[in-house]
Amino acid sequence: MADLETPEKLTVDLLAEIAGVSDLASLEAVRIRALGQNGVVTRLMKGLAALPPEERKAQGQANNAVKRAVSQAIETRKGALDAAALEARLAEERIDVTLPVRPEATGFIHPISQTMDELMAIFGEMGFTVAEGPDVEDDFHNFTALNIPEDHPARQMHDTFYLPSDGAGTAKLLRTHTSPVQIRTMMSTPPPYRIIAPGRTYRCDSDITHTPMFHQIEGLVIDKATHMGHLKGCLEDFCRAYFEVDDLPLRFRPSYFPFTEPSCEVDIGCARAGGELRIGAGDDWLEILGAGMVHPNVLVNCGLDPGVWQGFAFGLGIERVAMLKYGIPDLRTFFESDIRWLSHYGFAALDQPSLVGGLAR
Ligand code: FA5
User: How far is CA 358 from the centre of its chain?
Assistant: First the structure.
């Protein structure tokens, strides 16, 4: 493009150039060269001032015609290039909905988490709230307040992990059961109570049905007129909901725990035939949990008047009920972090119609 070109020639050249560009960047380069601050058309306009007055009008009109024609051509070409770019992008980004889904590695919910969620959902429906306590406990909350004084033989049954003494004579320990949460709840909030306390527990123990770390869920109900009938009804409803067997038979067998009086073990009806266990059928029994009426000494230790307040407590092993419900044969496999085991026994996050099982509404 030369300055000496006539407006007509300039128009023809610029329009040819505009028609020839094939992308937006080149078009912008032409626009700057023609209409930019120092562009040829701009300089043509500025040159008017130097012309004699009688030529200015005609030259001005000619210059304006160039400017109009070039501006319009640039706009039109820009519209066409924009549309072509959009077309190309749409063609490139098209999604073929008929393609099969690419397999993706998904995680699984561990059977312990699943079982805990189910237990919390069932007890939640029954009006229980969740309480928590520390894994590292002291002697008072884990034993003494639960009516297990020093030298009590029950302490030996618990195979306790003790932590090194802090020098002040208050050796801490890893809680051997979730029952200390009862004590913490009763000492920190006023009655009545209807709580469950799920969590980790520890005992120096390892075989096919015992691991050094395992999980329990504790239940505590204290009110002014709570009695053994409530305990039976509550645990019956719970076992039937959890195992999803409406007429599951339950047996309450006398037992002993220092913190409950009377105490019982609860068995559920089952059948054992050909190495297979079927829950709810047959005339055999399977122990499932421990329970009882909270011992008056425990209430007194927590500052409650046993003449006014009474109730029941229960505790069960979460792995144990998970193994029974989901047919998991070896307790130790829960904690081996074997991804093949988890993909077999784990649960898909989105595949859960109901956590509450068969609880009657
Ligand atoms: C107790 O721990 C009582 N605190 C339960 C209780 C609470 C009774 C409130 C009455 C009132 P026990 O020692 O039986 O009880 O343990 C309860 C359950 O924990 C057992 O039935 C078993 O399922 C589970 N359990 C105990 N030790 C282990 C272990 N080493 N590995 C896995 N599960 C265990």
Answer: 24
CB atoms inside a 10 Å sphere around CB 178: 25
CA dist., res. 159 & res. 156, Å (int): 6
Report the nearest atom of ligand 1 relative to the CA of 263. Answer: 10
Contacts of 301 (CB under 8 A, 6+ apart): 144, 145, 146, 147, 183
pLDDT of residue 153: 75
- For 193: left if phi > 0, alpha if psi spans -120 to 50, otherwise beta; the answer is beta
Beta bridge partners of residue 195, listed in sequence order? 129, 220
Specify the pLDDT at position 96: 82
Q: Does this model's pTM top 0.70? A: yes
- As for ligand 1, residues whose beta carbon falls within 6 Å of it are 177, 179, 203, 205, 210-211, 214, 216, 218, 257, 260, 290-292, 313-317, 319-320, 331
Give burial (CB, 10 Å; 0-12/13-18/19+) of 311.
buried
Nearest atom, ligand 1, residue 331 CA: 32
